[in-house]
Each structure stands twice: as C-alpha cells, then as structure tokens.
Design goal:
The chain is of the alpha+beta class. It is 20% helix and 29% strand. The chain is built from 5 helices and 11 strands. Strands 8-3-10-1-11 form a 5-stranded antiparallel β-sheet. It has a 4-stranded antiparallel β-sheet with strand order 2-9-4-7, with no helix packed on it. The chain has a two-stranded antiparallel sheet with strand order 5-6. The N terminus and C terminus are likely disordered.
Length: 204
C-alpha cells in the first residue's frame, strides 16, 4: 500500500485515514502556531526509501514546489511511520541553510538503486549536519529553504514516512490567482483544515 501511494500528491483527498491525519488536533496546533489560523494542506504523500544502499541528494523543497523567497509561508511535516536511524537513511538537515535563500540545483548523478533527485549547489562538507531520528508516531518540521537529504539506507527494510505540506491560505490564494489569470483554467488546490479567520471562502 505504501509503495502504491508514494507518488500521490494529495492522499488526504482520496483516503479517509489521511484526511483524519491532517486534521489531527496536535498537528493543527503546530501548524496554526507557525502559520496562523488560516492553514491549508497543499499536499500529502507517502515517502518510501527502500532498503539496500538508497539515498536522497541534498536539496530544498522550495524549488520542488516552485516557491520563491516571497512565498514561503509554508513548512513540511514528516511523520515517521517506521523506525528511523542513521543506518536506515533517516532525514538529515544542513544547519542554518534556510538563511541562504533558494540555491541553484542540478540533477544529481544516479547510481543503481539510488533515489538521488535534484541536488543543491552547496558545500556539504563545510556545513554542520544533523540526523533527525523520530520514533514512529513522532514528526519533524522543516522550513522550505532548509537544505536536507537522506543518508544511505543500508538495511533490508524500507523507511516509510507520511509527508504533509502546510501553507498559509492567503499566500496560496495569491499564487492560484496568478495561475488562473495566466491560464484561464481550473487549478487543483489544497484543502483548508480550518475555516478562514476573516470570512474568506474555502477551497476543496
């Protein structure tokens, strides 16, 4: 099941368990403390890092989601569904890299069995790095500018996380209005998990 949902960008719109998860009171408390009361779930997915020397290159999520420095009222929640450790390639953060803005990225070299993906242009060897090791049911949060990646999963078991992208509704509304103005077509949106504070309409 996890592998089948791994590339789904909005699982919470399709699966009742995922919808319940994004509305969990403890996650809502975290989200509203950072973004204010108008919180929108922009995407949800299941991340699977298979066992057998797979890893993910250092990168920023702001580039992946086409966010610039003026549209970063967002963060990502990574909820561990399986145990995490350096041995199974847990997530790693590069300290203080969120201060450097959106970095250039290049396509990472691929090796057999590697996830890799886009790689940020920065000197990882000169940067303080931290392994993030939540237990199943615990989560980590990251700014969209933080450079991060995962180490090699040298075990025989996959590491599985639920990933939620939370955004401030006002920033999303402006972004969608720009897209609609440019394309004059319908754009798939996220989902509000609380009613807007100032009477704004909801998006499903």
């Amino acid at each position: 099941m996890a592998a089948a949902l791994a590339n789904g960008p909005k699982i919470h719109l399709l699966r009742s368990w995922a919808d319940r998860l994004v509305r969990h009171p403890r996650l809502l408390e975290i989200a509203t403390s950072l973004l204010g009361p108008d919180v929108l779930v922009w995407s949800t997915s299941i991340f699977v890092e298979p066992g057998g020397d797979t890893d993910l290159a250092w990168h920023q999520d702001a580039l992946t989601h086409e966010l610039d420095d003026g549209d970063l009222a967002a963060f990502r929640v990574r909820l561990a569904l399986t145990p995490t450790s350096p041995e199974n390639g847990t997530m790693r953060f590069a300290a203080r890299t969120h201060r450097d803005g959106v970095l250039r990225h290049h396509r990472a070299g691929h090796a057999a069995g590697r996830l890799r993906g886009e790689a940020a242009d920065f000197d990882a060897s000169a940067t303080e790095r931290h392994d993030v090791v939540p237990r199943p049911g615990q989560c980590s949060l990251r700014n969209m500018l933080v450079v991060h990646g995962s180490g090699l999963n040298r075990t025989d078991e996959p590491r599985v996380d639920a990933v939620i992208l939370e955004r401030f509704y006002g920033a999303v509304r402006v972004h969608l209005e720009r897209l609609l103005s440019a394309s004059q077509s319908n754009v798939a949106t996220g989902q509000l998990v609380r009613e807007p504070a100032h009477g704004a309409g909801t998006h499903g």
